[in-house]
Predict the structure of Putative membrane protein YgdD (TMEM256/DUF423 family).
Amino acid sequence: MKRKILITGSILGLTAVILGAFGAHGLKDSLTVEAVNSFETGVRYQMYHSFLLLIVSSILPLNTKSLNTIFYLVISGIILFSGSIYLLSTKALTGMDISAFAWITPIGGALLISAWISITYSLIKSAK
């Protein structure tokens, strides 16, 4: 499981760098400043949580059940939070208007928050 989390964290970090470069260089002339800033928010949160996966899998003393929970919360959170921001901010280019589904962004954020709560709870529980 730890290997899977490390690999996933690395891939998510890699794609965050690629998407960040694309946002900074490929989108700045095609989208509004507000849309580019939103896109960059998605990239930033993806990168933060890529690092989180690397730390969770290599440093923190968590059991397999906690690792699984955190892994799936982070993956789901990144897909819903960052993914929806990518789509919402690039609708002028893609023609994909998912505004009716914008409610999935805060659900993704709640999943990311839940991952942090799970880490905190697991660490407190393991310290006893």
